[in-house]
Hints:
Layout: H1 9-21, E1 23-24, E2 29-30, H2 34-44, H3 51-75, H4 99-113, H5 121-131, H6 136-142
Antiparallel strand pairs: 1-2
Amino acid sequence: MPRGPDLSPKEVAMVHSKIKQFWDYDKARIIDGGIKEIRKSCKASGIPISRATVCRIAAEMKAQELASDQIFEETGEVAGLDFTSNRVGKCGRLSQLTDAVKEVYREIISRYAHSWIYLSERTLVTELKMKVTISHSLLSRII
Length: 143
């Protein structure tokens, strides 16, 4: 059963080393039939992964190696590979709310979170308008 994108950095490093065993350095890609062998080897190591995950890790590896080569040419410094998740710090949308609005929003939500009272969209907007003066365009982004 494929595990999806939630591989630990150690597991990604292990998959990376398996990819390198079947890597064509001249063409900068996995050799034909290599993905199947990589998946077999990973499964034997206790990390069952999908074909898409192997391709994603290979693409990330290739991009990081190209970036590392470019950094080396420009600065002479060696940049290593990063095996951590790409989702760390890159999740969701950036908040366009001010700190005051966030504080009031959290206070309203927490008041309704521990009760059986339903918080409708209309009630939320009304309470936000009463507590904080915010523009209509910003309020429309909240809901």
